[in-house]
UniProtKB/TrEMBL annotation:
Protein's name in the database: PIG-L family deacetylase
Record key words, sorted: Zinc
Pfam families, per the entry: PIG-L (PF02585)
Superkingdom of origin organism: Bacteria
GO BP annotations, alphabetical order: glycoside metabolic process
InterPro entries per UniProt: GlcNAc_PI_deacetylase-related, LmbE-like_dom_sf
Length: 268
């Protein structure tokens, strides 16, 4: 089922990854980015939710910072520095759209949009329709997105509202569907049932993107740059690289790979 290809699948195209948060692009597409850099077509990672919080921070945002070992005052600066290092490792250029993370957003009355983090995966996408429309316009005007020869966008596995917003905005872009590959959000995708729902209908054209050992190693080293997220990803499980590798090797008969999906036009 599907195609098995490596860097040749890029066909000389420069990739742009739409990353919801700082680490998502490398976690999910770091191997493809490394392959692009090696092939002379280095990519760009456009991080959507990269904006600084406006004080006062919600209790949930402060809790998140504490869990990450980040100070409230310079959390974004620290994460940006981590991202800069990760971009160097995978050979990509960062672009940041500066929209505040769900944990930082406030409603019209100035109250936290998501006072409890459990609401972030359960929130109805319709409640973010305004932001989705604004974001689609920003993406359409951003040269790294507008001119991207190949766009990598999230399937939003794991259901985080920021990933779903990114997916919904990407769907509003007026693009040839053949130039958009939908990526599996890691690490959420490694859970056994992650792909069963609600993506069954989209399982029409998976592309197995084979990686060399060197490309996989660059991806893992890139992920390692996001030190503040280590206590959060997979609940702080220090074996994250091992589990990511097991999943990646399960896709292509023992060699590491990333899997990308093509969504039918009916779902766009
Ligand atoms: Zn994320």
């Amino acid at each position: 089922m599907g195609e098995h290809q490596g860097a040749e699948a890029l066909a000389g195209r420069t990739p742009t990854v739409l990353s919801a948060h700082y680490d998502d692009g490398v976690l999910s597409c770091g191997g493809l980015l490394a392959a692009g850099a090696e092939a002379g077509t280095p990519g760009t990672v456009v991080t959507v939710f990269s904006g600084a919080p406006e004080p006062p921070l919600s209790a949930e945002a402060r809790k998140f910072h504490r869990a990450c070992g980040l100070a409230d005052a310079d959390a974004i600066a620290r994460r940006e520095a981590e991202d800069d290092r990760a971009m160097d490792v995978v050979g990509a250029t960062p672009v940041r759209l500066g929209v505040p993370d769900a944990l930082y957003r406030k409603d019209a009355a100035g109250n936290p949009r998501y006072p409890r983090d459990t609401e972030i995966s359960r929130a109805a996408l319709e409640s973010e329709a305004e932001l989705i429309g604004e974001l689609a316009a920003v993406m359409a005007a951003e040269p790294a997105v507008r001119d991207a020869e190949l766009l990598l966008a999230p399937l939003a596995i794991g259901n985080h509202i920021d990933h779903r917003i990114t997916r919904a905005a990407a769907r509003l872009l007026d693009r040839d569907p053949d130039t958009v590959w939908w990526y599996e959000d890691a690490p959420y995708v490694i859970f056994p049932r992650a792909l069963l729902e609600p993506f069954d209908e989209s399982r029409t054209a998976p592309r197995i993107f084979r990686l060399t050992g060197g490309q996989w190693d660059r991806k893992l080293r890139g992920i390692g740059c996001y030190a503040s997220q280590a206590p959060i990803l997979l609940g702080g499980n220090t074996e994250l690289p091992k589990y990511l590798t097991m999943y990646a090797e399960s896709l292509a008969g023992g060699e590491p790979a990333e899997r990308y999906w093509k969504l039918p036009a009916a779902q766009l």
